[in-house]
Every structure is written in structure tokens, then in C-alpha cells.
Specification:
The protein is of the alpha/beta class and 303 residues long. The chain is 45% helix and 8% strand. It has a six-stranded mixed β-sheet. Strand 5 and strand 6 form a beta hairpin.
Length: 303
């Protein structure tokens, strides 16, 4: 099993949830870093995975999606410098802990996770995606796991529809119809979650829906004729939205499982890093326990 961690969602969670009086000796806030580092150490100590990839967002709303649709994520405030600084420190912490980390100015963390998943699946491995973002559920296949670590909930492939309303293969199409307000992606006006679910249940996909659009009027939907006309009028917007909501799995990452093979933590560097941040000894001690489970390399590691 390969654990692919959506780092940004947990860094942001710590940024907003923890008090910013957690600071380094120079007075710089370190609360997002500390919250993320604790979560990461707990996860790795708990599962002792052989393969891990930690994906960060570096584009902050840029990249190929912004070129496709300039208003993409334009509703978000720019990341403050202190948050960007802590993102860089989170990546450094991963390296000291021996965890491969990934970021790109062109591709989002979701795309990096999708691309890593595609590569390791080519070698017969399954993935556990650690996130709270429903968009990533579209990557879950048979044998995979969607793990909401902070919410202490795990969902297998057959359980995704019960959690999010549609099966993994339909998630990008679902978001194309409803839109995604979080990312400022408009969908088809007047098509909400229940209508989108009904349409995808009847047709299976956005492509099949538009291939037989006139059949929408025969569905037991309130205002089915109006829904049909809205879909017809906003066809281009729906397909553009799908380009934005579909996770790419072709980011240029060379290799397979070696990309995400864990390394032994650099305890000396990690200890020095934690001292610079004013974190005390708890995280270095935890990292030492993690390292002690790797005395002979991967032979001592979990599944």
C-alpha cells in the first residue's frame, strides 16, 4: 500500500485551527508547521508504511487551470507570506523525516497525487489517499482507501458514493454539473447536487448525458424540460468545468515505487530543525521511534 498525503489540506487546517502565538525564537509564527509535523509523525508512526508521497500545492491558483480559466480560484485571498514560509518549512520537515515530497508550479497537489497513483498502480500497488477533499475521491479504485485522517474515517471504493453522493468515476462530471464554489468553478445554473446525482445515475457520465440530451425531459425530475434547456445552453461551460475538476494523472514524474520509497530519518538534521523552530524534544523523540522501526531498511517496514 502506498500512502499519498494531501499535505496542503492539513497545513491549512493547522493554520486556521491552532493559535498563532506558537512561534520560533525569532518570533515567526510556526503553528501551521507544528500542527502538520505532529500529524505527519503520528500517521507514519501509526502505520509504518513502506511507501509515502507528500504532495504540496505550490501554484496557489496558477498553473494550467488558470490559463484555461483565468477566474479559477480568483475568489481566494492570496496566501500570506507567513503561510508560504511555513509551507516551505513543512516540505523541509518531510525531507528530514525521510518522506518523499512533491510540488509543482504547473500541477496542483491533486494532480501530483493522481500521477503518483497512476505510476505505482502500474507496478501492482494500491493507494491510500490521505485527505479531507472530496475531489480526490475520483482517484479511488478497487482496493484503494480514502482516509480522512483528521476525521478518523476511511472509505473504500464501494463506500465513496454513500459518503459523497456519486461513485469515484463520476466525481469530476458531478462537479462539472454543480460547479465548485470553493475553486470558483461555475457549473450549469440551476443544477444542484440532487439533480446532478439523478442525471449521472440515469446517464452514467457527462458525455453520455450530452449524447442523448433530449432524453432528460423524460426523467422524473421537477422542471425536467427547463433542466434540459439549461444543460443545452451551458454545454461549453460544463465541459470547461470538467477540465478544471478532473484530476490529471500525467504530471511529468519519472519512475514508480522508487519515487515514494521512504528513507531513514536524518535525526541530526531533524533535531536541529526542531530546535530552530522552538519545538522542544517531542517531535525528535517521535522521529527516533520512527527510525528505530527501520533498522534494516524496508524489511522492517509495514505494508
Amino acid at each position: 500500500m502506498v500512502y499519498l498525503i494531501d499535505a496542503s489540506v492539513y497545513v491549512f487546517r493547522a493554520w486556521y485551527a491552532l493559535p498563532d502565538h506558537v512561534r520560533d525564537p525569532e518570533g515567526n509564527p510556526t503553528h501551521a508547521l507544528y500542527g502538520f509535523a505532529r500529524l505527519l509523525c503520528e500517521l507514519v508512526e501509526r502505520r509504518a508504511p513502506r511507501y509515502v508521497g507528500v504532495a504540496f500545492d505550490e501554484s496557489f491558483g496558477g498553473g494550467f487551470r488558470a490559463r484555461l480559466y483565468p477566474a479559477y480560484k480568483a475568489n481566494r485571498e492570496p496566501a500570506p507570506p507567513e503561510l508560504k514560509r511555513q509551507f516551505a518549512l513543512c516540505r523541509e520537515f518531510c525531507r528530514h523525516l525521510g518522506l518523499p515530497e512533491f510540488a509543482s508550479g504547473e500541477y496542483e497537489a491533486d494532480d501530483l497525487i493522481g500521477s503518483l497513483a497512476a505510476r505505482v498502480r502500474g507496478e501492482g500497488l494500491k493507494v491510500t489517499i490521505v485527505t479531507r477533499d472530496k475531489d480526490l475521491s475520483q482517484l479511488i479504485g478497487p482496493g484503494d482507501v480514502y482516509w480522512d485522517y483528521a476525521g478518523a474515517a476511511e472509505y473504500r471504493h464501494g463506500e465513496i458514493a454513500g459518503r459523497f453522493g456519486v461513485a469515484p468515476a463520476s466525481m469530476a462530471d458531478y462537479l462539472a454539473l454543480t460547479g465548485d464554489a470553493v475553486d470558483n468553478v461555475p457549473g450549469v445554473p440551476g443544477v444542484g447536487p440532487k439533480t446532478a446525482q439523478a442525471l449521472l445515475e440515469a446517464f452514467g457520465s457527462l458525455d453520455a448525458l450530452y449524447a442523448d440530451l433530449d432524453a432528460v425531459v423524460k426523467l422524473p425530475l421537477r422542471g425536467a424540460r427547463a433542466v434540459c434547456e439549461r444543460l443545452r445552453a451551458h454545454r461549453e461551460a460544463a465541459y470547461r468545468a470538467r477540465e478544471l475538476t478532473r484530476i490529471r494523472c500525467d504530471a511529468p514524474l519519472a519512475g514508480g515505487r522508487e519515487l515514494v520509497r521512504r528513507r531513514v530519518p536524518d535525526l541530526e538534521a531533524l533535531g536541529a530543525f526542531c530546535r530552530r523552530q522552538g519545538f522542544g524534544d517531542a517531535l525528535p523523540r517521535q522521529a527516533q521511534r520512527i527510525a528505530q522501526r527501520l533498522p534494516g531498511g524496508e524489511s522492517s517496514m509495514g505494508p
